[in-house]
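Chapter review. Work through the record for Pectinesterase inhibitor domain-containing protein before attempting the end-of-chapter questions.
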Amino acid sequence: MATLSLTFPLLFLLSFLYVLSGTELATAATTTTTAAATNPAASFIRKSCRATTYPSVCVQSLSSYASTIGKSPKQLVMAALSVSVDRAQSTKTFVYKLTKFRGLKPRVYSAIKDCLEEASDSVDMLSSSVRELKRLGRARGPEYMWHMSNLQTWVSAALTDDSTCMDGFAGRASDGRIKSSIRARMTNVAQVTSNALALCNHFAGKY
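Structure tokens for Pectinesterase inhibitor domain-containing protein:
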């Protein structure tokens, strides 16, 4: 009984501290969630990303641009295109380095070279889209639609380039690591580009 009387207060104290720490963690999580929910820019990004094919990727890739985006649909599209350009350029550099590997089988090397061309085209198309968005300015009517049509066409073309690169490695069982590394990067580029196109289309529909 003496042992029990000494142990019970200790157990009670430990239980109390456990509950208290859990409450503090829950409070901290709630505070963080509430802060994010009350941030107008963050809320605008989350709401806009619902119209995309990959909303979680959309939110993750654009969150760091929140202060620049604010609640501007145009800045949202600009940020989405900038993300696509950066990731397409990074992937292009990665694929280029693969062409320098020694001992590649001819068909694997050919697929990598083809993918490099597609990645380069994707970077060019997305970069052109960024420039076209900047040219919109105060354009309205036919002029606005002309610029926006160019923008949408180029982003769509970039998305096709991403898909074509990945198709080039279909069924190539002997280049597993190369195929998986390229597909992983191109898949991410394709996802952010798809999201950028969706945001472009949504933006275009407002005018």
